[in-house]
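Reposting from the mailing list since nobody answered there.

I have sequence plus structure tokens for a pair of proteins and want to know whether others read the tokens the same way I do. The first protein:
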Amino acid sequence: QVSSGDCLGILEGHSGHVCSVQFSLDGQQLLTASEDTTAAIWDVDAGERLRVMGGHDGGVFSAVFSPEGQEVLTASRDCMAKIWSAATGICIRTFEGHGGSVHSANFSPDGQEVLTVSQDNTARIWSAASGECLHLLMGHRSFLTSAVFSPDGSKVLTASEDTTAKIWSVASGECEHTMAGHHDIVACAVFCPNV
């Protein structure tokens, strides 16, 4: 509980490290991603696991709900990302093409595109509907640590171990700006909410 700091419950069921946790939009469900190669949806009040999404061949590093909450997007050590039905737990689409572990995946604000970040030093923008790779974002010299869409969905911001962050056009896939000046890894980069 936020006000008291008390633990209200423990969700047990994963057999590996839990890598990410996210509430559903209504706060009634939790989404977890685990090194045990699965993601799971839980009932917050009952503490029960409602659905397990299993189909990756490696640990699942992240899992997020789509903007409407009807789908789940996972990113995995198996070099793939997947979209699942939040209602049934069935895999709807698989995104293949990265040459290294996919460490995170996010929906665009309108849910039309998917953004993935990989250990292969690239990010990719995909069509959520077709699974087609729309743009390969190449230019970082080392592992990407994060990538996010701008609030309006027109830009992507990437951060990298190469000590830089870059802003890319979603429409063209071209790098528009490189922000250099740090002397060590850029662990994370985000847009201001009003950008």
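The second protein, same order (residues first, tokens after):
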Amino acid sequence: AGKQGSLYSAKMEKIVVIDCRQHMLGRLASVIAKQLLNGQHVVAVRTEAITISGGLVRQKMKFSRFLRLRMNTNPKKGPIHYRSPARILWRTIRGMIPHKTKRGAAALERFKAFEGVPPPYDKVKRAVVPDALKVLRLQTSHKFCTLGKLAAEVGWKHGPTVATLEEKRLSRSSEYYQLKKKGVQVALKAKTAAAGELKALAPVLAPVGMA
């Protein structure tokens, strides 16, 4: 069943852009992984605002245990510990896909993840995944932390830069919305003013569907 403004749609769009803000990491990753395997192209933006259940201290301890996993004789061969929110999400999704097969590798190539909302995705309609929203899936009293804060604690250094760019984007977006709203109001006033003049032409316009 199709849901407006969500990832689920009867018709497969060319590229689906997901706003990851206030989504649970694991639930979001599982939905994206399934869609990728089905042939959908997915772009995830604002990955720094993804939430993880459990407090920041607990998540940092878990991540520090993960950082200790290494190849004894040649650590550069892996495992590779990504610090940025976008790559953490990418790695989570990779774990849900058979990425060593041709089908899995092709699915993973259909996925992109970004911190913030870079062009051209700032001018594209963004979707949400209701099954992964924190407000619907996490108890109100439950502790949580954001992926951006966790990443900053374990070595990601670009948080302030992303925050500055997001502030500028939101400012531009607000200006565009105000201009658009003003344009709609002007068009409505013009339509109301011209209604009296067009009343006489209604019989002519009706047959062509313009009355």
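Reply #1 (J.P.):
I read it the same way you do. The mean pLDDT is 90.
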